[in-house]
Design goal:
- 3 copies of one chain form a homotrimer.
- By secondary structure, chain A is of the alpha/beta class.
- Chain A has a domain at about 400-585: 3-Layer(aba) Sandwich (Rossmann fold).
- In chain A, about 30% of the residues lie in helices and about 20% in strands.
- The first copy, chain A, contains 18 helices and 25 strands.
- Chain A has an 8-stranded parallel β-barrel with strand order 1-2-3-4-5-6-7-8, surrounded by 4 helices. A 7-stranded mixed β-sheet of chain A has the order 10-9-11-12-18-17-16. In chain A, strands 13, 14, 15 and 19 form a 4-stranded antiparallel β-sheet that branches.
- In chain A, β11 (about 455-460), α17 and β12 form a beta-alpha-beta unit.
- In chain A, α5 (about 110-130) packs parallel to α8 and α13 runs parallel beside α14 (about 375-390).
- The radius of gyration of chain A is 25 Å and the shape is globular.
- Chains in contact: A-B, A-C, B-C.
- The complex binds zinc ion (ZN) (3 copies).
- The site of one zinc ion has 3 residues of chain B, from loops.
Chain lengths: ~650, ~650, ~650
């Protein structure tokens, strides 16, 4: 695995570039990402390009042997461009223009802006496409960051109408699909359709779902235009985009289909603070991040590229500036995160950023160097990680073991129609992932469209929309299948299937969900040694339940090796059910120490201690230790060959 | 009492209508409400009516002996109409148009839309007014739902100025009444007056109160226009509107004056979740609703029709979709709610809806049938309720016992000027109502304008504005009167009366409120065995307090049979005070088991168990049991003849 | 010290004025503020002045010997003026016009409105400037109340561009200062610059800081225009403005430079409720206010006038209307607050208001009289305070003891860039102030620009921007200096200094802050007998820490008599550190009873009991008691000559 760093030569005097490059190489880095926010320097005035500084920066880095990932600067169009086409900005859900002064101030549907992007990408690609220093391209930056994948602009409305006409062909078909007879929402022409925001009460969920699909498609199309230009002008270079954490505003499988390498930006501490984790988890993992945050995304984004090629484009190197609270990583965590990416098969981990920039929005975001150019803690840990990587050698391919199905449209469904506040298919996927990993399993998070062959177990935490083709392939799967609540509960157009939930999955297990209940926080339905909360389904079936609530209601249903969960299980019961399935699959459930996680890579097994206490690992007798020891310290990493 | 159901033939293929109608009748239903959201089907294009389907639907239902309540479709104007007059939509408090895509997207003050409503109502009334199947009309649907009774549109501003000119005649009178000299808010002409939203800090409370009065009057006027057309064209049919729960955006007494039957939409579980109830209440009554929610509205809306004619137009039949959390009713609750409405004198309970519609906004809202047409739990309970109603026979007239005064303008006052966060006249009314009912009393909730004759006790939880005529009638009342805090504290124009609070009520009890305190949550003033929270008044009087705080300050004041409460009493003290009054009135206070409520109807007494445990009732010796037994199960109903 | 009252003759019939004036004098008041909201009465129509009523009101008050403070009415422009120039209103951060209907509906940058203000102020000044009854002028009222110091209007944008051009001269200098190369935010001309609101994610913090500076300067300029007119036309009268509590939207030192007397509006109960105090503090001090709220502002605003002249223009006399909850002051508190102002050197305390006005927005705000003209509790306490003031006699000058540095721009920095939610330089200043006062110290809160001579100790709780000149003067200071976290951490343009934090302060103590951590609520770093929360800095230094965390990390650093705090200390450690410094300065730390605070004035010492229990004071042997006794009751005041 290679190490890299994000670098902004335009922020620093030219005379430090060469020293920076030298220090990067010396630290063990071999990749450097540049350029993705530099439009105002590349084209300071309309049509006047200033290539000189970039030529020199690329040359300087290249001379130190660094492979350059060049970003297209389309996430930050300069002010002169916005002033020329003021309607290029997105409108927010309240209808307010999202103005210039930070970044991502564009609407994916604005044709004028798309043309400008073609132009600047083409200019870059033509100039540097065949430069030997350029090893890859990054398209734009963090599509959708700051809620920017969705826009309520006139341009979006226009494009949405066109998209709908394409999808439904006749307005009657759309009215029928959405059920617009309800509340007299019927349209006579596609031109009558507005965006679903600013309605009196909630808009039709089918209207929302199509708008979310459309918005995702606009991102895919936007990315594809850049990818096509870059491929044409820069043969042999990887096309990469950097995804974000816990972010589902567009279909990453679809964007990933146009990429050579999927990458993501890993900020475990910031994500812990900003997402759904409990107060207790936020305190316990304050300086480490929840032990499954990084791995979840590694395994998710690996599944977004057809050959499983993926990287970490931005790795948190110290405190960041953007969470509500911003503590420093525990010493060792930057190295741990780096090696964990390796364990999951990353091609590269690139730190964000080289040197903390003392100005502007991210001045409180640490780098590998301090603003005064002294090496910061993260720099030292990167150096150590480079040595460790060399010591470990090649990690071997990721194993195929457990597949967990996650579908972006499914998450849109639960966002649009949570039915119980906070219900989230993404969170369900994370919870199931975490439970599996605590059992010592290696998990691939895959699209329902992906190939199931080779997996020993399939887990569907919550996929509301399951196509007939997927049902077919699930039936063909030879191994335990776990189906979580709400799976199969909706048709493509977000309606209830004629045969009720779980829809086509009834071909796997003969039961019907006749009623659902969402339960307020603090309400639990008790079973023996477990409790159900948040979500409870009433099931009609000739089957006998495998596990019941104390009141007799079935909660786990089984037909052969297929199980259906009629509620949101607590961790204890989820672990039990995984244990039952593992038994079916001849897999051994481990009981990892608290805060410890592991990952296999080829013949290697990596262990990571996210806790603040040392723990004892069960390293098999005779295993060859490549790193660390069976006693694993806080923030420690142990690697052995099995 | 009749049972009915809300039905949407336009949602289903015509070939199922006849079977649906047959099954309704078979279930014990004799009423069916239709049509209230069907404008886009009745008039698919401007001026082109399509009556065929509706003719056939009415005929099909009629043939099964079902009496039809036909709704006017004005809550859901079709898109073509909005596109023709885009300014017909309301503006929200932030000034944003409330767009098409759900329902209620109209401003009550828009004259063009009013004319369109006249036209469509006239068309319906002329076609079906004398059809023998039509037994009643519902005007529009849930006026004000989704905050829609109030609009900040130019049309509203214009109408408001006209309304003010009518009320005050001269701008000087308005300036004087509002106290506009304060902060130089004086106007020179009515044309200068804006709506009270979007001011720098809060607008003049008198400005707000008049705007709320105006907004309410616009609803009254809107409803009256429809009622007049329907009365003219459809003689002998009842005019009904369906009110909502805990909703005060317009004066329901005033709208009720134009109705033959007041009805409301009863969703006990949704209301429990969405309103002010404590976490503990929300958990205890999770699947039953708070035991006073349904009854409170029964007794409130009965008082909104001059002959006490009322119905439940929509009865929750299972889980709904619109609360934060949506659990299922405890088995038996749908039947319990039905019979409780009977006990309170309803003419009809109509379930919402016949069959769960698998598409659009309410697809997660249960019906009597599942989406697959199988009878759902609620269907079975409706069938049982029909049998029970037949078994009980005629219930006899509601008793006149305790009258609780509630005034919509009073609630607007506490909304506009809570003085302590969360203070609400509506909630005060509910709390007092609940306390009275736990004593076993039957309560009528009446307007201060209603006749007090025949009542044994009068309760005024919180009526800030009390007219001189009401004071006069209160003085003439011969029985205990309880006056809660803030009553009489404001003039008609929301100013402090010259004689201070309780204003004219000082003619009933000689005391003055010289100062008020609102107390933050968690702060209590202690008395012996009770505590005061939220609100505390300093009273000046020559009377001796009847009950004092531990610090000596008077909290309950008495003059003859009139009592004044100088604060927000806890449940214990409120019960004590009711006990004192009951003693004065020779009424017996009962101590009902937890979760149990009762209601008398003629010679019958109904008991309802909202708890999750069985309870023992004190059924008098020799009473004839018509339903259930003295041991009342969870969700149980017992009825006896006294 | 004089007592006064705020009076609105325009609210009352003329025939009560003379009686009101007589009663004021009889109560012991000698000052009366009038006129500040009376524009619509002074100029009821454009250009038509109505002076008659004001002539008579002034004459009536003057005849009773009351010195009149006449307010300019520019906080409440009348409706006709707004209708003539609708763009004079401010726009809020969302871009919505802040409409007419309350007060402060103007944008400080609107030139048309400024001209109107010149005109009305000139008219008033010319008419009454030399009237013998006029002793002072109040400019406008509470600049910035209701967030009104900041406007996002086109007028503000235009003025901001001009302001920036003045400050930076070239656009290149601005781009460089702000670091606009980051995210391609570079501008080509000043005309390209927008206001920093409504950006996609946060705008450049340097952009925000300049906008805050600009907005503050607009207030300064606005005030200066009025002051200049008044000075020219009304020689010998004091120019006053009334500041608010915990309010930092403009630089009060800068506005104060144009005033003869700084004054503020003291509402201890409302401020307790609305600001950051804990639930426990809000309950403990419910009817008293936190014991440091009033004193903090006394000592702050005294420092805002170059000769230390200051007053309380509005003193809470009873419950107010504007906090979430509005309890009544404990009996005695109105007197206590009055005498505390005297102890801190006020020239006047003026109560708000004479008589509770029964109409409009503040009808629930108590006065000295009730709406029915009966003297209210506050009236009696004012009368008592007048007697006490006479008994005490002249208090002597404020002592120079401890200086606490507070800088408005520093507070803007922590608002713009809290880095940990809720971090606030203002709150830091308050916390340190409270700790010092609990030690029995007398504190001056001063600008870093003020003279340090004569102080025995300097405290810098949190001043992120410290100029080189200040560093120079700090180096010259001969006494203990305490530097709190984040001090010196930013350059003038809100970037990280080249030498890292604490920037130039490294000349006082040789250490560098290499990393900062903000910690979520509930997270603590333990030391022996203390804990650090919220904020923790990593320090690099050759010094040995004076105090360490249990994990060895230095938390208090010392070089000679200069100390640096590398985190947010709890009260225990802060008190210890103050003790260490006091030792260096030969000052004695006292341990005042809970809820008790003291203040020295000349040879007098005042003690105030904010608790609800009586306490025993350590009055020195032989001290002469001028008021109260060593046993100080709840809400009690004791004064002795030392
Ligand atoms: Zn981002
Ligand atoms: Zn509704
Ligand atoms: Zn104010």
């Amino acid at each position: 695995m290679k190490l890299g760093v994000c670098y902004y030569p335009e922020h620093w005097p030219e005379n430090v570039w060469v020293d920076d490059a030298r220090r990067m190489a010396e630290m063990g880095l071999s990749r450097v990402r540049i350029g993705e926010f530099a439009w105002s320097r590349i084209e300071p005035e309309p049509g006047r390009y200033d290539w000189g500084w970039l030529d020199r920066a690329i040359e300087t880095l290249h001379r130190q042997g660094l492979g350059i990932i060049l970003g297209t600067p389309t996430a930050t169009p300069p002010k002169w461009l916005v002033d020329r086409m003021p309607d290029m900005v997105a409108l927010d859900e309240d209808g307010r223009p999202r103005g210039f002064g930070s970044r991502r101030h564009y609407c994916f549907s604005h044709q004028g802006y798309q043309a400008e992007c073609d132009r600047i990408v083409m200019a870059l690609a033509e100039r540097y496409g065949e430069h030997p220093g350029i090893v890859a391209w990054q398209t734009d930056n963090e599509y959708g960051c700051h809620d920017s994948a969705v826009s309520y602009s006139p341009a979006a409305a226009e494009a949405f109408r066109y998209w709908l006409a394409n999808r439904y062909e006749t307005i009657g078909a759309l009215n029928e699909a959405w059920g617009n007879v309800f509340w007299s929402m019927e349209y006579r022409t596609f031109a009558e359709i507005d965006l679903p925001n600013l309605t009196v009460t909630e808009a039709n969920p089918a209207h929302w779902l199509d708008f979310r699909r459309f918005s995702s498609d606009q991102v895919v199309r936007f990315n594809r235009r850049q990818a096509n230009i870059l491929r044409a002008c820069s043969p042999g270079r990887d096309i990469i985009h950097n995804f974000m954490g816990f972010f589902t505003q567009f279909d990453h499988h679809a964007v990933g289909a146009d990429l050579d390498v999927a990458s993501w930006d890993s900020y475990p501490l910031g994500f812990l603070e900003q997402f759904w984790f409990s107060e207790e988890e936020k305190r316990s993992y304050l300086r480490q991040g929840h032990p499954d945050i990084a791995a979840f995304h590694h395994d998710l984004y690996r599944g977004c590229q057809k050959h499983g090629r993926w990287s970490v484009m931005e790795q948190q190197p110290g405190p960041v500036n953007w969470a509500r609270f911003n503590p420093a990583p525990l010493p060792g965590m930057v190295r741990l995160w780096t090696l964990e990416a390796m364990a999951h098969g990353a091609e590269m981990v690139s730190y964000f950023r080289w040197r903390q920039f003392p100005k502007a929005q991210e001045q409180m975001h640490a780098g590998l160097l301090r603003p005064d150019s002294v090496e910061d803690v993260g720099g030292g840990e990167a150096r150590q990680a480079a040595a460790d990587i060399a010591a470990i050698g090649d990690a071997g391919p990721p194993p195929k073991s457990v597949a967990l199905l996650f579908d972006y449209a499914g998450d849109w469904v639960t966002q649009i129609q949570p039915q119980g506040r906070g219900f989230s298919a993404l969170r369900m996927a994370f919870d199931y992932y975490s439970a599996l990993r605590q059992c010592g399993f290696d998990v691939d998070i895959i699209s329902p469209q992906a190939d199931f062959a080779g997996y020993r177990m399939l887990i569907i935490p919550c996929c509301p929309i399951i196509g007939a083709d997927v049902v077919e392939r699930l039936r063909a799967f030879d191994g335990p299948v776990l189906i979580g609540p709400r799976s199969g509960s909706k048709t493509t157009n977000l309606s209830i299937p004629a045969e009720l939930a779980p829809g086509g999955l009834q071909q796997l297990i003969p039961l019907k969900v006749t009623r659902v209940e969402s339960l307020r926080d603090g309400v639990e339905e008790q079973g023996e040694g477990f409790a159900i909360s948040r979500w409870l389904e009433h099931v009609e079936s000739n089957l006998e339940p495998e596990i019941r609530l104390s009141n007799g209601r079935g909660i786990v249903w089984r037909e052969g090796s297929v199980r259906y969960l009629a509620g949101h299980l607590d961790a204890a019961l989820l672990r039990d059910v995984i244990g039952l399935m593992a038994g079916d699959a001849d897999m051994v459930v481990e009981d990892l120490p608290s805060g410890v996680r592991t990952r296999r890579a080829g013949m290697l097994r990596f262990a990571f201690n996210y806790g603040t206490q040392a723990q004892q690992l069960s390293v098999p007798e005779g295993a060859e230790l490549l790193l660390g020891s069976a006693r694993i310290e806080a923030a420690g990493v142990t690697v052995w060959r099995e």
